[in-house]
User: Fold Dihydrolipoamide dehydrogenase from Amycolatopsis saalfeldensis.
Amino acid sequence: MSGQTFDVVVIGAGPVGEVAAERAAKGGLKVALVEHELFGGECSYWACIPSKALLRPGNLLAAAKRVPGVPVAGALDPAQVFARRDWFTGKGDDAGQVGWARGAGIEPVRGHGRITGEREVTVGEDQVLTARHAVIVCTGSVPRSPSIPGLDTIRPWGSREATSASAVPARLGVLGGGVVGVEMAQAWARLGAEVHLVITGERPLPKLPSFAGDLLLGGLREEGVFVHTMSGIREVSAVDGGASLTLADGEQLVVDELLVATGRAPATGDVGLDVLGLPTDAPLAVDESGRVSAVDGGWLYGAGDVTGRALLTHQGKYAARVAGDSVAARARGEEISTEPWSRYSATADHHAVPQVVFTDPEVTSVGLTEAREGSADRVVDIDIAVAGSSLHADGYQGKARMVVDTERGVVLGVTFVGPDVAELLHSATIAVVGEVPLDRLWHAVPAFPTISEVWLRLLEAYGL
Assistant:
């Protein structure tokens, strides 16, 4: 294949790269998809899929315990949980993903791809692929590693180890109160580990409304997670079979494993951006169609985590659809519109990014979580206390927030926290994206008795 020419070369075969390649191929282009690890990427083998497979059994068991009359065994079987996770990840076998690519008319290419010139990608040492129309970079993100004295004396877990381990550590330390930290803290606590979650603030999920972090904090502690707030790790030292942690307040903890979950950064370091005069320590800046305007000729595109826009698989796939379609349309010589909400514009990256934290309680949001500074926006907060939630679980606790643009009478954002609220999120996303007037939303009648009746209560609290 050395010296072969394609219409499009996509670097990175995670879900984002796969979608970008598929959309370009559906547009009639000849596409190569380059991957140096597993086709299917981080999400399929080490992130979204295995983490949710680890979380689901514990959430289901907790839900059963909240409804009298349901026979409950009382504890999870870790071996069966791990076996089900491994089924979903295929134990790292990506043959199915490679077969899918070929079936979609995409040429899979194994090896590390690096941009080495205009419209040129070199895979490995000497396999040169030339793109007639575009190179699309979909290399995702990598974990951020904090600078902590002694951390290099142990082998800490990252998110990959946390989702792929097949033995329950007796004591697990978790550093970081973001999504990975809280999800894995709860998952491993329910699998039987003594978990210590160390966070720097008063509550986890600091970017979300305080009630979200407070409810989750209560849920974690109810599961037996020891949450060390207003703290951090000052020093780490290796001990037999584990690590000794010195916390910010001087407290000492000894754990068998330490998960470092302190965020991720766009993977731009070894893609060859330096050849083009672009920074290798910053997100790849793209326009609404995914094109890198700083590169002459308009042949370089990016989508997903590598752009730093919204580090979420579903949002990356959305941007990949836009990028793949834009490349195909421009290759046909079409003039495309990148006006907001057009097919060739990733507008939702700025206004309607849905996200779910799959803990118990679940935490979900889309759009704004607070009023805009200096605006006439109104924030409506209520408890989720409807017939549907009462029937769903005894002692159901949850909260909802709606942010409203009072001048236009439309919803700008919604936050839900509570057991099983993730399924409410898409209705909120449609309301935000569609800019549905509140007077019209009033006529979207929620079925009784479901938790969705919270929509009626939000509108009533607003004054309708």
Remarks:
- The mean pLDDT is 96.
- The chain has 14 helices and 21 strands.
- The first strand starts at residue 4 and ends at 11.
- The chain has three domains: 4-40+94-142+265-348, 151-262, 361-462.
